[in-house]
Amino acid sequence: MRPASSRAISRNSSLSAKGSGGDALRTASLQVIDDQTIKIATQRFDVDIVFKLQLSGRGLSCISGLKGCINLLELNLSGNTITSLAGLGCLPQLRTLILSTNLISSLDTHLTNLSKLESLHLQDNRISDLESLCDPMGLRPLTSLRALYLQNLDRTLPNPVCGQPRYKARLLAQLPALTNLDGERSPSRSSYMELSAESVYLSTHTAPPRPLIILDIPAWSDPEAAAVAAALQAPVAAAAAQLLQDGVTSMVKVLDECQVLNEVLGSEISKAQAV
After folding, report:
1. Are 76 and 101 spatial neighbours (Cβ–Cβ below 8 Å)?
2. Cβ proximity of 126 and 105 under 8 Å
3. 123/148 Cα distance (integer angstroms)
4. DSSP result, 204-249
5. Tens-binned pLDDT, residue by residue, of the chain (275 aa)
6. pTM beyond 0.70
7. Coil, strand, or helix at residue 58?
């Protein structure tokens, strides 16, 4: 009998031979995931020592064949045509899950067993129901979840749910443990829960705009001209007041967004300097 080291070398050589197509085999389209596919993609001889698996853009329409990956920490299945998350419940150690650019419309109940999941990427899918994300069968059981992406930081690749009114405030109110939503990190002294509460308060306690005072200009000596001026004064004043109010509201919104971005950038710079 050959020594264990010789058998391991032989298995690795065999795997290299089977994967002698190199990158072509590691990027070919797949019908299903199986142990051999995982070994070729990761260049490991056993699936139970695979910690990171990337099968993006491989034409996969479902998730299967991962039961042996009991120690998998990161899974990237982006750029496929996956519609269901069935098949993920067998990955108890998973920390990062990347499923961007697929055809997923709901989370069903297939993530509830991923108690150690910390980062979930779902940009560019078809998720439209905000309530289902936050219910007990959605994201709420993921107690370790800290980063959630339903769109990019620059608002590209959004899910339909991202366009709903007060999308962030409602989501953060249900998932207060999040520290990163769509790439926006929480400020060092404030949690997203606090930001969400402030946003809700401001949206319901906005001070009414100050009334616009129009000076009473004496009528012209020409009766006909004075009549025309009087007829035009009221609608012009109302339009001016509306334009001013819209301008102030827009400016406040821009300033708020600039402040948040400035805090995010300051936090990132501090982290980079610390490293």
Report:
1. no
2. yes
3. 9
4. HSPPPPPPPPPP-PPPPSSHHHHHHHHHHHHHHHHHHHHHHHHHHH
5. 444 444 443 444 444 444 445 566 566 788 889 999 999 999 999 999 999 999 999 999 999 999 999 999 999 999 999 999 999 999 999 999 999 999 999 987 778 889 999 999 999 999 999 988 888 778 988 999 999 999 998 899 999 999 998 888 888 888 888 999 998 886 334 555 555 666 666 677 766 777 777 666 665 556 666 666 666 666 767 777 777 777 777 787 777 788 878 887 877 787 777 76
6. no
7. coil
- The 10 Å CB-count burial string (b at 16+, else e) for 111-124 is bbbbeebbbbbbbb
139, 107 Cβ separation under 8 angstroms: yes
**Widest CA span of the chain, in angstroms?**
118
SS3 149: strand
Residue type for position 127: I
Structure tokens at 10: 């032989």
Contacts of residue 250, Cβ cutoff 8 Å, sequence gap at least 6: none
Q: What's the residue count for the chain?
A: 275
Tokens 């496929």 identify what position? 80
C-alpha dist (Å) from residue 194 to 142, 189, 190: 20, 10, 6
